[in-house]
Design brief:
Elements lengths: L1 E7 L9 H16 L3 E7 L13 E3 L2 E2 L2 H5 L3 H19 L2 E7 L7 H10 L6 E4 L2 E4 L7 E7 L9 H4 L1 H12 L4 E7 L6 H12 L2 H6 L4
Parallel strand pairs: 1-2, 1-5, 5-8, 8-9
Antiparallel strand pairs: 3-4, 6-7
């Protein structure tokens, strides 16, 4: 059975988080339409996400093993093992959904730490004459980024102000996943009315996104 990996990068409880409310609605709608998908959830704030260190790698993007691994402290060895586990979980999925807020024109740092764990040689990338290439184009995959933000950002300013969205799309395509969709919960504002309207507007786009899923 193919897997849907739901990655939560928002520390707020689901009932008050705009990105998580919309993310959950998207997950539920996908599972209703595609009963051949199994759900796996990864809450980055409840799961241990190591911050990769130089000593964790034997060479470019290759995790330490053998003697190199044994020379690390017990905690460092556990970090390397956790990084390997997180990467394997990512590679095994066919559909990915990330729910994240926009923070300081980007996203929470824990999401970057997670992506740094996932970028591993011969798992998500390879090197061809020292040039890195993504290898997750081995089969159809779809990545959907659900992002909430307080303001409505004009499309012309998104490349400047929405650096988090740009980075996620770039890194996902870099590792070989060509099908990338965004589901933006823009304009959540400062009132419950503004927030509710932004959430409902985002939810109205779910059916169209589901129709474009490739896996």
């Amino acid at each position: 059975m193919k897997k849907l990996l739901y990655i939560i990068a928002n520390s707020k409880p689901e009932d008050i988080s705009s990105s998580r409310i919309v993310g959950r609605a998207l997950v539920n709608s996908i599972l209703e339409k595609h009963n051949d998908l199994s759900l796996e959830e990864l809450d980055l704030y409840n799961e241990y996400i190591p911050r990769p260190k130089y000593s964790y790698f034997s060479n470019r993007s290759t995790l330490a093993s053998g003697d190199a691994l044994s020379k690390l402290t017990i905690q460092e060895q556990k970090d390397v093992q956790q990084m390997s586990k997180l990467c394997d979980q990512f590679v095994a999925a066919s559909v990915y959904i990330v729910a994240s807020p926009m923070w300081s024109l980007s996203f929470p740092a824990i999401l970057k730490d997670y992506m740094d764990c996932v970028i591993q040689s011969e798992k998500t990338i390879t090197f061809n004459k020292d040039k890195p290439e993504g290898i997750l184009n081995d089969r159809p995959r779809t990545f959907i980024y659900v992002q909430s933000s307080g303001a409505n950002i004009p499309w012309i300013l998104k490349p400047i102000l929405d650096k988090g969205l740009n980075y996620v799309e770039d890194i996902i395509k870099f590792i070989g996943i060509s099908k990338f969709d965004e589901l933006l919960v823009d304009g959540t504002g400062t009132t419950e009315t503004e927030k509710s309207e932004a959430i409902e507007k985002a939810k109205s786009k779910i059916d169209n996104i589901i129709n474009q899923i490739q896996f």
